[in-house]
Design a protein that fits this description.
The protein is an alpha/beta fold. Helix content is 33%, strand content 21%.
Length: 263
Amino acid sequence: MSGHDRLTDIQGVLLDLDGTVYEADHAISGTVETLAALRSHGIPYCFVTNTTSKPRSVVVERLRQAGIAATPEQIFTAPAVARDWLREKQFTRCYFLLRPPLLADLEGVEAVDETPQAVVVGDMGDDFTYNKLNRAFRFLLDERCAFVTLAANRCFKGGDGLCLDVGAFVAALEFATGRKAELIGKPSPAFFEVACASLHADPAHTVMIGDDLESDALGAQACGLRGVLVRTGKFRAEQLAVSGKKPDFVLDSIADLPRLLFQ
Ligand SMILES: [Mg+2]
């Protein structure tokens, strides 16, 4: 491989989870070997996910079942980063569009149904109802109520095909209120900064690898990281073809990452 075909001087790697490291209930082939290669070369890594349907403890267990060892501290979820952000802004009473188990990652912020300081949108899957969305809509008509979303992804790959993700519901609330939600998860700069800092890695020497063109690869590039897209999970060749911006590299899967970094 020529020098142009690989990434050099990398100090840290951020790995997306769904569609990159695992899919449904199994690890994507080559993940375990890739993580071992990173460790043997002394490259720190962490997992960054916009999953807002599972608390960190469940993510750790899911990784373990897929044969991947990880600690909660190695996993950056939007709710975990949002917790610090909300507390810093002193938004301690919030209306959450979020599944109740996720509130474990938001300790110190109270879930309320009346006069919230902020509406916080995450994943509710089948539990999204007209009433819940409408309640959020009414709170947001008061400009003093902050509008926060944990993710803005358009879709994710479910067991039976592509599924509507949080971004679609946020767009509905944005449309109805004329307001713009503040994003906490990928691809917000704050999210990437927190993850890079945890690895003591300079963003310019950090790689983000994921299956979401916008939130993972291009989002990371916009924050000064190197963006690598994988052709697994929700990857769609048509979307890449029409995109005006391109990732630094496109790999068949995470299994090709060691070749990009070390050979
Ligand atoms: Mg993904």
